[in-house]
Amino acid sequence: MKQNIYDNDIFFKSYTSLRDSGITYNDFVEQPAIKSAISSLNGKNILDLGCGTGEFAKYCVENGATKVVGIDISKNMIEHANKENKHEKIDYICTSIEDLELQNQKFDLIISSLAVHYIADYSAIIEKVTSLLNKNGEYIFSTEHPIVTARKEMNNWIDDKEGNRLHWALDNYQEEGEREQHWYIDGVIKYHRTISTLINTLINNGLVLEKIIEPQSIPTGLEKMPKLINEQRRPSFIVIKAKK
Ligand SMILES: C[S@@+](CC[C@H](N)C(=O)[O-])C[C@H]1O[C@@H](n2cnc3c(N)ncnc32)[C@H](O)[C@@H]1O
């Protein structure tokens, strides 16, 4: 089943106002890491899977990409992208990754930032990505770290009586599949997969693993969001880069 929480008005308003604040895990942890994994954008034909409001697509064309196709399941996100991050070299398409069909198109770089954990069939995405990549093309994606998605309650910090954080609890690691959580609204579904599934599915599709990043905060993040020091205790995200 495909979920489209970003078209829920309460969720969308809360999420966009968080992102507009510029003080987020995306700004200080995930985005710097995924950008650092890109060798070059110059002259590249790029596909952004789960492009959201199009900031990353805009970043790509401003840094030399020839063409970007950004796709997202959410009408809200695509409307926002077409308003705020419109560009002659970018096409935004409202479709799910699962239903995406791009006849006769191949890409030098496929990016997917924090969308993969919303998708039930990981193997099908990787098969599709592989078929859409040019030879030597790169696939770079970030997802919530399996250490974060594993435990069913998804509320993992264990505190002492005074509320100090003692440690991060890991459980149900080998049990892949749906996890439900409250994030602005009830019933947000994410999918947990082990590290070996994340990696071996790439290998089984003939992709060559190039880099894995378990990012920590950049220095500005620690000043502006002191709780990001916790990224030293457990990573929230994993960024994986593979080549065809
Ligand atoms: C956390 S947001 C990240 C947005 C953007 N990549 C960024 O980094 O700013 C996740 C995005 O994935 C999209 N998404 C979730 N499930 C999807 C699916 N099955 N197909 C396409 N997009 C999906 C959401 O609508 C949302 O825009």
Short description:
The protein is α/β, with parallel strands linked by helices and 244 residues long.
Describe the structure.
There is one protein chain. The protein has a single domain (5-148, 192-243), classed as Rossmann fold (3-Layer(aba) Sandwich), CATH 3.40.50. It is an alpha/beta fold and 244 residues long. The protein starts with 8 loop residues before the first helix and ends with a strand. It has eight helices and eleven strands. The strands form three sheets. The chain has a seven-stranded mixed beta sheet with strand order 3-2-1-4-5-11-10. It has a two-stranded antiparallel sheet with strand order 6-7. It binds S-adenosylmethionine (SAM). The site of S-adenosylmethionine has 20 residues, from helix 3.
Features:
alpha/beta; Rossmann fold; seven-stranded mixed beta sheet; two-stranded antiparallel sheet; 8 helices; 11 strands; binds S-adenosylmethionine
Taken from the alpha-carbon principal axes, the silhouette is: globular
Rounded to an integer in angstroms, the radius of gyration calculated over CA atoms is: 18 Å
Into which percent range does the helicity of residues fall?
25-40%
The CATH C-level class name: Alpha Beta
User: CATH superfamily name?
Assistant: Vaccinia Virus protein VP39
Break the fold down into its secondary structure elements and pairings.
Layout (H helix, E strand, L loop, with lengths): L8 H13 L3 H12 L8 E5 L5 H8 L4 E6 L2 H10 L5 E5 L12 E7 L8 H11 E12 L1 H4 L7 E3 L5 E4 L8 E7 L1 E8 L2 H10 L3 E6 L5 H6 L12 E7 L1
Parallel strand pairs: 1-2, 1-4, 2-3, 4-5
Antiparallel strand pairs: 5-11, 6-7, 8-9, 10-11
The structure holds S-adenosylmethionine (SAM).
